[in-house]
Design a protein that fits this description.
Blueprint lengths: L1 E2 L9 E2 L11 H14 L6 E5 L5 H8 L4 E5 L3 H14 L4 E4 L3 H6 L5 E6 L7 H11 L3 E12 L11 E9 L2 E8 L4
Parallel strand pairs: 3-4, 3-6, 4-5, 6-7
Antiparallel strand pairs: 1-2, 7-9, 8-9
Length: 184
């Protein structure tokens, strides 16, 4: 069972796609959002959830006050689950893009304050690096990027303009934080 940890939808359950996704555990989401909320105010933030799966990260952000979340998921079944979760939770402030993360970040679009990237373990370092580099032009000043990977994968190659903030391991999972460098 996957559920929202805190906020307006705290305790509500999320449906999970039948296969091919690994929702971020409640323990990791609780720690991740505690750190995120100490770093920035989520109220009104524009959030991008790449490789969204069930949407646990984006929906958690919305529950905690984010203004809008865009979910990017290439699997049609998972995208349908995302639509159902948004409706069930009553979050109308969502956009669901059924396409690859790489195709999404290379298209023109809105800017984001927070980006979550939780790629399947099969996504290689080079592919992830292309996605992270592609999203940089669409990030606001001081935007935060959070990448979740298998602990054995190591820290992602942060693109120019993004500096590493921190890394934290949770068993087999590691969470890496990057932030857009402020000029000045």
């Amino acid at each position: 069972m996957t559920r929202i940890v805190a906020g307006s939808a705290g305790g509500r359950r999320l449906k999970v796609p039948p296969k091919g996704t690994r929702p971020t555990s409640e323990r990791v989401r609780e720690a991740l959002f505690s750190s995120l909320e100490s770093l920035m105010d989520l109220d009104g933030a524009r959030v991008l959830d790449l490789y969204a799966g069930s949407g646990a990260l984006g929906f958690e952000a919305l529950s905690r006050g984010a203004g809008h979340a865009t979910f990017v998921e290439s699997d049609k079944r998972a995208a349908d689950v995302l639509k159902g979760n948004a409706k069930e939770l009553g979050f109308a402030n969502t956009t669901i893009a059924n396409r690859t993360a790489e195709a999404y970040v290379l298209a023109e679009g809105e800017e984001f304050d927070v980006v979550f990237a939780d790629p399947p373990y099969a996504v290689g370092d080079d592919e992830l690096a292309k996605v992270l580099k592609g999203i940089v032009p669409r990030l606001t000043q001081d935007a935060v990027l959070i990448v979740e990977r298998a602990s054995r994968s190591g820290e992602p190659a942060w693109p120019e303009g993004v500096e590493s903030l921190r890394a934290k391991r949770y068993g087999d999972t590691a969470v890496y934080w990057g932030q857009v460098r402020s000029d000045g």
